[in-house]
Design a protein that fits this description.
single chain, 309 residues, alpha/beta, Rossmann fold, 2 domains, seven-stranded parallel beta sheet, five-stranded parallel beta sheet, elongated, binds NADP nicotinamide-adenine-dinucleotide phosphate
């Protein structure tokens, strides 16, 4: 019995080494695999082609290489009844926390303005605002959002989180559901999106959302590109309703060369690298979960495909 691995070519060897270190007895086959489908018990994948996992009739679990499982949930031909497990591992969480802090500090400390001043050799001080007076709002208080919220709050910012279900978290103001969205947005000077992409969250960063933010608010978009209505964001940036944006994810990736975001003076963009699964720590998490299954215990982090996360 074996695990089938589908990752990008650059990280294939690192994954092989990490999985071998975590379980030397486990056979790992790289994608594409032409051998006996009955040999494959587990799949550890990112972006398998539609319907491609169906031929493995003995699959016991599908592990997503990323936290997001939209690349699997969007496949209408996913094998029936096989649990889908999202990635939860310390390296991925730490990387996202770093990126959120980077995004928050970039806007808090006016780095877009100073970069523009540098290009035109202008030496001008912008009055600083105390972190405690800067209100950060994090959409999504799951594994990644809650850790980022705690670390941003530890820097002294006034942090709130928005989730689907009610939550209590020391030091964080919490809002939930549709009714909680507007009051949450109204107090978010820097809005961070760490939601999963689902039917409910598609297009959630739209003109109405931007209008509900304080004028000049900043956006840090690190969930999925499908959250953003890009024309609405451009309009909000151009009108000054959104003062600046850090964008890591886009509707079309790689971002096409003609996208206006590339050259927008109020945008910093990165190529979907806010955080990456780290094979060493992730392989340990996957192997530990497989051991749970073999011991007859329930798998951790199984997603609800109907809910979409
Ligand atoms: P998670 O643990 O499943 O948390 C998701 C959070 O979103 C939960 O708090 C959930 O609310 C909330 N949520 C879901 N639907 C909602 C809705 N309709 N309204 C309000 N709140 C809603 O997910 P995670 O591990 O933190 O990951 C979040 C996402 O980050 C991933 O799905 C992925 O898209 C993205 N990501 C991006 C990168 C990158 O490099 N850019 C890297 C990793 C992950 P409840 O708590 O009430 O369920
Ligand atoms: C990356 O985007 C992930 O979902 O882990």
């Amino acid at each position: 019995m074996a695990l089938l691995l589908k990752t990008d070519i650059e990280r294939g060897d690192a994954w092989q080494r990490a999985l071998h270190a975590a379980d030397p007895d486990m056979t790992v086959h790289d994608w594409p695999y032409d051998g006996d489908p009955a040999e494959i018990e587990f799949a550890l994948v990112w972006g398998p082609p539609r319907g491609a996992l169906r031929r493995f009739a003995d699959l016991k679990a599908i592990f997503s290489i990323g936290a997001g499982i939209d690349h699997l949930a969007s496949d209408p031909e996913l094998p029936d009844g096989v649990p889908v497990v999202r990635m939860v591992e310390p390296g991925l969480t730490a990387g996202m926390t770093e990126f959120v802090i980077l995004g928050v500090l970039t806007h808090h400390r006016f780095m877009l303005d100073y970069a523009a001043q540098q290009r035109t050799r202008i030496w001008r001080e912008i009055p600083q605002i105390a972190a405690a007076r800067r209100r950060v709002g994090i959409m999504g208080l799951g594994v990644l959002g809650s850790e980022a919220a705690d670390k941003v709050a530890a820097l002294g910012f006034a942090v709130a989180g928005w989730s689907r279900s009610p939550k209590e978290r020391p030091g964080i103001s919490t809002f939930h559901g549709e009714a909680g969205l507007e009051p949450f947005l109204a107090r978010s000077d820097i809005l961070v999106c760490l939601l999963p992409l689902t039917v409910e969250t598609e297009g959630i960063l739209n003109a109405r959302t931007f209008a509900a933010l304080p004028r000049g608010a900043a956006l840090v978009s690190t969930g999925r590109g499908g959250h953003v209505v890009e024309a609405d964001l451009l309009a909000a940036l151009d009108s000054g309703q959104i003062g600046g944006a850090t964008l890591d994810v886009f509707r079309e990736e790689p971002l096409p060369p003609e996208s206006p975001f590339w050259a927008h003076p109020r945008v910093i963009l990165t190529p979907h690298v806010a955080s990456m699964t780290i094979p060493d720590s992730a392989a340990e998490a996957v192997v530990a979960n497989i051991r749970r299954l073999r011991a007859g215990q329930p798998l951790h982090h199984v997603v609800d495909l109907r809910r979409g996360y």
